[in-house]
Amino acid sequence: MNQNFESAIPMGNYIVSPATQETSNGLYRASIAVQRAQSKGAYCRIFNFDCEFVSREAARVYAITQGWLEAGAPRPQAC
Fold it and tell me: If both were cysteines, with which of 28, 32, 33, 51 could 59 make a disulfide (CB 3.0 to 4.6 Å apart)?
């Protein structure tokens, strides 16, 4: 299985790097790496999704959307 990394996309304070991977049955899976854009401490999360898609582009769009949700979603305020 070969993983195809896309260009990093700046999203607010984060940089999202989507990736797609072809599965053994010819479908595609999506994943993202989310990193802090500024060097204010280490922050890097990798998300692998179980969904399978019929095209690489569909997996890429899903990865970018999930990255946008992760990077742009408001955080709940702590008590």
Answer: 28
pLDDT for 4 equals 59
> Are 8 and 15 a contacting pair, CB within 8 Å?
yes
Cβ-in-10-Å burial (0-12, 13-18, 19+) of 50 comes to: exposed
Tell me the β-bridge partners of 48.
31
What predicted TM-score, i.e. pTM, was given to this entire model?
A: 0.77
Higher pLDDT, 73 or 64: 64
Residue pair 45/37 in contact (Cβ under 8 Å)? The answer is no
What are the phi and psi torsion angles at 6 (to 5°)? -100, 175
